[in-house]
Amino acid sequence: MTRAPLHRTHPHLTNACIAALLVGAIGATLVAGSWTLPEPVFEPLGPGAFPLATGLILIVLAVLMIISAVRPSDIPAGFERSTGRKDLAFFSIVLTGLYGLAMDRFGVGFPIATSVFIFSMTALLAGRHLTVTLFAIPLALILGFGLHAVFTQFFYIDLPS
Questions:
Q1: Which of 5, 57, 70, 91 is the most exposed place for a label (fewest CB within 10 A)?
Q2: What is the reported pLDDT for 75?
Q3: Domain-by-domain residue ranges, the chain?
Q4: C-alpha to C-alpha distance for 17 and 100, rounded to whole angstroms
Q5: The Cα angle at residue 70 between residues 69 and 75, in degrees rounded to 5
């Protein structure tokens, strides 16, 4: 007679915690990197404000991801917890890496790289929904060029052009 294990590892819980730790590590890296940037001379916020805010938001998101994974959820009868689409997660990470690489190594300007990134991510996540993909074109252009204008004109942060 064998005894049932006291604790059974759930793949969803493990994957969610690993993802949360990765998000938290990226956030901590951004926070640490923002502290190494020089103090502002003429700008009110300085170059470290955006990475600091982004890093803190990612850390809070990671904590919420862990809480969501650990907390028992009420799943109605007849429904199962989704295991997710690992291919979407993988390609989202790849696209994000290519986005940063395009600006850093290949000199692609922020407005163009951001527009292509937003369109690509929207098309990837929309799947085969043509209306969403068509809506992504103006959305990507507005966000790409609009964010560039906001950062350079309002926050006085130089972005790659």
A1: 5
A2: 61
A3: 11-72, 85-161
A4: 25
A5: 70
**112: Cβ–Cβ under 8 A, 6 or more apart, which residues?**
144
Residue with tokens 């929309």: 126
Quick one: which of 34, 100, 37, 30 has its CA closest to 58? 30
Query: How many angstroms separate the CA atoms of 26 and 54, rounded?
Result: 10
Contact in structure between 83 and 11 (CB atoms under 8 Å): yes
> What does the pLDDT profile of the chain (161 residues) look like in tens digits?
555 444 445 555 677 888 899 999 999 999 999 899 888 777 777 778 888 999 999 999 999 988 887 876 666 655 565 556 778 888 998 999 999 999 989 999 999 999 999 999 999 988 878 888 899 999 999 999 999 999 888 877 888 87
Vertex 58 angle, CA 141 and 42, to 5°? 70
When computed from its CA atoms, the radius of gyration of the chain, rounded to whole angstroms, is: 20
Alpha carbon distance 133, 63 (integer Å): 32
Query: Which tokens in the block code for residue 24?
Result: 């938290």
